[in-house]
Amino acid sequence: MKKISSFLVFLLAVGLVFGVLGCDDGSNNNNNNNTQTGSGVDFSDYQNNDAAFFIDNRTNHKLVAFKGSLNASNLLGGIPANADYHGIKKDLTKFTKTEGFPVIFITEEQYNANKNSLGVLANSPFTREYVFYNHGQHNPQRYEISGQVGGRHTLNVINPSGLDVSLRLNGPGGPTLGFATRQMIQTKFPMYGGDFYIYPVFMFYNAHRQVLVQSYPKRAIDGGAYFRPVDFPMAGADTERNFDVSEAYANLANDLTLGVAWVIFDNQSPTASITVEEGTTPLRDTFGQSLFSPGQTRTLSINMPGVGSNTFVSERTIHNLFIRVADMTAQVKDKAGNTSFILKTDHQYTATVTGSVNTGFNAEIDITAGSLVNIHDLYND
Q: What's the CA gap between 261 and 350, in Å, rounded?
């Protein structure tokens, strides 16, 4: 088994979210709808299937949320101050597929002052959170914004790494102070005075498996979760502290994995469009396509067992991979003619398809030339 010793991997398709604080149905929600606001933002509290996700706003600020970037077309709605389990409207013009994405929060005051120039707040939002949305399913995911955000001091997060990072308070599963996107050297968050233990949690959304991979680096000295103490004065001048996540990123283990093997199928048949099936299940590329024409290639993923736990198997024996053209099939073989062969996780292979409807088809995979895919490079594209 391939151990992901420094990673917490959660299968969001079944509703397990790292940092999600509960999965109740909203019956304990004590908010009142708050639609009357001079900003024109909808502060209504949407519940059950009308909600895309839920926010606990532990701050004294009314917040305005945007999906992905600060653009008027991405406005999601507002969250009252001190809100509990406040539902963001499931606007089906914005929520069209299962995906993970950052949500940017600014105060209502910031919104009112910058309606026509929201981009000026891109590096200094109130805070950010990374959200997962499961299209077509109930979404009980709940995210907490820490009440320590919003003061006169500034936390500047420097993230030159290839992964997005969420900053958690007092532990990897604590409330969110902020979220900094990859390769951003300046993301500023307002902070109150006090002493804080901040834990960076790196993450990426794995579209192949529809899981959000969240990883906390370990300390070299004892294997505990990496953290940085940061202090802001209770009195005196406004203070800015930098938090460079480079050291934390360097502490990540090298076995970051997507839990899949990739096979590039090259259709060299001059006339036939083909599908690839594992057993009787068609395999699809990242765009959802399963049928591809003569002369085309498709990169298809083969899942490895173990998703949803802390381990993936390091390799898997494949014995039921087929090429299908209408009612004709051909089993994929290796160069020695074996229909059973081993694929390694996070490796990429090439299979060549030849033949025609008249002569039959042949599909040969080159197992010996499998190459390791660098996952960090994949997410630096």
A: 11
- What percentage of residues in the chain have a pLDDT greater than 90? 53
What global pTM score does this model have?
Answer: 0.66
Q: 231: Cβ–Cβ under 8 A, 6 or more apart, which residues? A: 194, 195, 196, 241
Three-state secondary structure of the chain: CEECCCEEEECHHHCCCCCCCCCCCCCCCCCCCCCCCCCCCCCCCCCHHHEEEEEEECCCCCEEEEECCCCHHHEEEEECCCCCCEEEECCCCCCCCCEEEEEEEEEHHHHHHCCCCHHHHCCCCCEEEEEEECCCCCCCCEEEECCCEEEEEEEEEEECCCCEEEEEECCCCCCEEEEECCCEEEEEEEECCEEEEEEEEEEEEECCCCEEEEECCECCCCCCECCEEEEECCCCCCCEEEEECHHHHHCCCCCCCCCEEEEEEEECCCCCCEEEEECCEECCCCCCCCCECCCCEEEEEEECCCCCCCEECCEEEECCEEEEECCEEEECEECCCCCCEEEECCEEEEEEEEEECCCEEEEEEEEEEEEECCHHHHCCC
pLDDT in tens, 343-363: 998 888 999 999 999 999 999
